[in-house]
Design goal:
- This is Bifunctional diguanylate cyclase/phosphodiesterase.
- Residues 24-282 form the EAL domain.
- The structure is a single chain.
- By secondary structure, the chain is of the alpha/beta class.
- It is 49% helix and 19% strand.
- It contains 13 helices and ten strands.
- It has an eight-stranded mixed barrel, surrounded by four helices.
- Helix 9 (193-198) links the parallel strand 6 (180-186) and strand 7 (203-206).
- Helix 4 packs parallel to helix 6.
- Bound molecules: ligand C2E and magnesium ion (3 copies).
Length: 288
């Protein structure tokens, strides 16, 4: 048995695996410090209303400005989720977006709605969505003129799959506060149409994997159109993600998609750049 164990141990800890485990431990330690060291930043990406061509929404996308270079979310969010750090990080994102949107409201002519991504692990935190949580995160913003309709939360299908009553209650809390809910990455998970019936969802975001190969005779076009027709019949509006070409925009317009997000319109960018490029200062707007 000892021999087998020895072999197993040898088998499980190759130098590569040891190095990977070490990288992970180092990243975890650095991630723990990142809020305190003010290394997080929220980028904003415009979302366009296809019927008017105007910006009506944006998505808040987290960036980690590590001293050695920016770390993309997909490289640290899974680790933050596994370790529960996403609770603090997610709360920081909420507070930061509320602060930023409140500031924008003071300076720009905007009723922009900003989408905030949420991970299932955040819903496991007992404080999340409790009255104190809303007070702490949103109190100042609401006092300085923030309208809850300026916020939207993005959830994933995996959240709805796991959904017990406490998760459903939390989603309802957002709705009760006047915050809309979008189902992100639609079509990639175990899409079950019953979620759409069971939960009150305001928006579906069609995943970019359906958008990237859109062409006039493609199956993806048929799928997108079917999703849009179904969503509209259920009173749900549709946002297409990852729109990169003019042809994609035209096809999505033809099948009556409501909103588009993607590099064709603008990349995610720091708040200052975003407002310079996309928001109109209030004093330039006719008051009458
Ligand atoms: P997501 O919520 O689906 O966000 C959309 C992703 O698509 C973003 O990647 C965005 O930069 C990218 N994107 C937008 N337009 C285009 C395009 O035209 N082409 C291509 N190829 N990509 C496009 P990003 O910023 O790297 O974020 C990746 C994921 O990380 C997000 O996917 C979201 O799941 C997660 N994430 C980001 N910020 C947060 C956060 O604050 N909290 C949580 N829990 N997750 C976050
Ligand atoms: Mg999202
Ligand atoms: Mg998405
Ligand atoms: Mg996605």
């Amino acid at each position: 048995a000892a021999k087998a164990e020895g072999r197993n141990r040898f088998h499980y800890f190759t130098p590569e695996m040891e190095a990977a485990a070490q990288r992970r431990r180092r990243m975890l330690n650095e991630l723990r410090e990142a809020i305190k060291l003010q290394q997080f930043e929220v980028y904003y990406q415009p979302i366009i209303d296809l019927s008017t061509g105007k910006i009506v929404k944006a998505e808040a996308l987290l960036r980690w400005n590590h001293p050695k270079g920016q770390v993309p979310p997909l490289d640290f969010i899974p680790l933050a989720e596994e370790t529960g750090l996403i609770v603090d990080i997610g709360n920081w994102v909420f507070a930061e977006v509320v602060r930023q949107v409140s500031v924008w409201k003071g300076y720009f002519d905007t009723d922009l709605q900003v989408g905030i991504n949420t991970s299932p692990a955040q819903y496991l935190d007992e404080n999340f969505c409790e009255p104190d949580w809303f007070g702490n995160i949103m109190g100042n913003g609401l006092a300085s003129g923030l309208n809850p309709a300026n916020l939207c939360i993005e959830i994933t299908e995996s959240l709805l799959m796991e959904a017990g009553s406490s998760i459903t209650d939390k989603l309802l809390q957002f709705r009760d506060h006047g915050i809309e809910v979008a189902l992100d990455d639609f079509g990639t998970g175990y899409s079950s149409l019953s979620y759409l019936k069971q939960f009150d969802i305001d928006y579906l975001k069609i995943d970019q994997s359906f958008v990237s190969n859109l062409s006039p005779a493609s199956q993806d076009l048929v799928l997108c159109e079917a999703i849009i027709v179904m969503a509209h019949k259920l009173g749900i509006r549709v946002i297409a993600e990852g729109v990169e070409t003019e042809e994609q925009r035209q096809l999505l317009t033809a099948i009556e998609c409501d909103y588009c997000q993607g590099y064709l319109f603008g990349r995610p960018m720091p708040a200052k750049e975003f407002s310079d490029q996309w928001l109109i200062p209030s004093h330039l707007i006719d008051q009458d």
